[in-house]
Amino acid sequence: MPERPIKNPKSAIKKTMGVIHVSGIRCYAYHGCNEEEQRIGGHYIVDIEINTDFDTAALTDDLSKTVDYVEVYEIVKKQMETRSRLIEHVARRIGDALMNQIERIQQVAVKVTKFHPPINGDVEKVSTEIRKSR
Question: What is the CA 81 to chain-centroid distance, rounded?
């Protein structure tokens, strides 16, 4: 069946919604429930997925019209410096901070991965992921 032409193409396209990934943010932090984790720390990776309208940025090539990766990184780094017992708590704090500080974000997913958790077994990593939206 042939496609029907759009009568008014400008009105058919509303926004250019997109996804921005800031992946593999490496951090050394002091999160954990046991005393040793809180004292010696461990390696973490944070992955961020942001849904936003970057139509104007895509048209104008203007950084101020989209989400700045540097700002995302700085927010994540600051939240990772605040000690927590649970990585679920860390992920929630990061999501809240991103949503509160960057108005352009419509939805965010935050994944926090902890390497070599103190489990009685051979476990490379554990992760938790949260999603928040406006």
Answer: 16
Q: What is the pTM of this model?
A: 0.86
pLDDT in tens, 74-97: 999 999 999 999 999 999 999 999
In sequence order, what E strands does the chain have? 17-29, 42-53, 105-115, 125-133
Domain ranges for the chain, please list them: 15-133
The SS3 of residue 134 is: coil
Q: Which residues are catalytic?
A: 114
- Please list the residues that pair with 52 across neighbouring strands: 18, 105
Residues 6-58: tens digit of each pLDDT? 555 555 666 668 999 999 999 999 999 988 888 999 999 999 999 999 888 98
Phi-psi region of 32 (alpha: psi -120 to 50; beta: other; left: phi over 0): left
Fold of 15-133: GTP Cyclohydrolase I, domain 2 (3.30.1130)
